Amino acid sequence: MKLTREIKTAILVIASILLFIWGYSFLKGRDLFSSYKTFYVEYQTVEGLATAAPVTLNGLVIGKVNNITIEKNTGKLVVELQIKTDFPISKSSVAIIYEPGFIGGKQIAIEPNFNDQSVSEDGQRLKGEIRLGLTETVGDKLAPIQEKLEKIMANADVLITGVNNVLDKKAQEDLRKSLSELSFTMEQFHKASLSMNSILDDNKAQIKGVVTNFSKISDDFSKISDSLNKADLGKTVKNLNETLAKVDGIMNGLKSGNGTMGKLLNDDECSGRGLDQEIDDEEIQDHGQDQTADDRTGNGIQRSFHGFFLFLNGLGIVDCFRGALG
User: Fold this and answer.
1) CA atoms within 13 A on the CB side of 245
2) SS3 sequence of 55-112
3) Would you state the pLDDT for residue 282?
4) Phi, then psi, of 165 in degrees rounded to 5
5) pTM for this prediction
6) Reduced to 3 states, what is the DSSP secondary structure of residue 324?
7) What mean pLDDT value characterizes the chain?
8) Sign of the C-alpha dihedral, residues 166, 172, 177, 183?
9) How many degrees, rounded to 5, is the angle at CA 314 between CA 311 and CA 318?
């Protein structure tokens, strides 16, 4: 069968029309040979979202933004999503506008609700949300810092103004003078430090000797400490306590009149006899004063012994001893 020119022309025209339709759809990102689902989402603002923006599910591109229109009654933006996936998207899934980075534009991420088993159908309206991107997040973080910086700058301006008002010409001169005196003081301190270093250099041997002596003294104290630690101080204190207890017992015995010394201290009779004997001894002593100087010299030792005996007798000690022996 031979095709006529008219049939060939018609076939060419039909093929051109189909190729044009396919090319137009391809340029718009639509595949004529694939089945898509269309979903609609309402937003108060789309934050710069453009058509042909990718639609992702857990980071995987499953579709694109097909169209954005404005509702005349409410003024809200209706975004048409063209999605191609076998994954069941529930009716309560959320379409979130987000910014993947500083350079890329806005995209839409589908967050499915796995607890909802009802699958959305073609033409279903999904809930829309907007997530702050990196730029908006950084801007929100910088806004309080900017306010604080503005307050700091204002306070600094007030402070500088106050300083300028205080530092008049006289104050500036005083400040310069104070700085000059401080510089002079630091210079003197530097000279003093140099002198001190010189003194230390000249007396290194003496300082070394002092340190050595101190080390020896420290060693001696250490040895003394070791000796004290080794000594039985507890036994010494115990013996001292026993000795003091014995002395205390002797003193109590003297107070109570036990023994010869106790009687001597507490017996009035012994004391009276001693007083009478002392008077007789004084008369004898007055009589002895009439003797010549030679007799005194010859009998000096005897008189000394006799005087000591009279002294003991005057105290009544001799009578007490006689009573104790009798």
Assistant:
1) 6
2) EEECCEEEEEEEEEEECCCCCCEEEEEEECCCCCCECCCEEEEECCCCCCCCEEEEEC
3) 52
4) -70, -35
5) 0.40
6) helix
7) 76
8) positive
9) 90
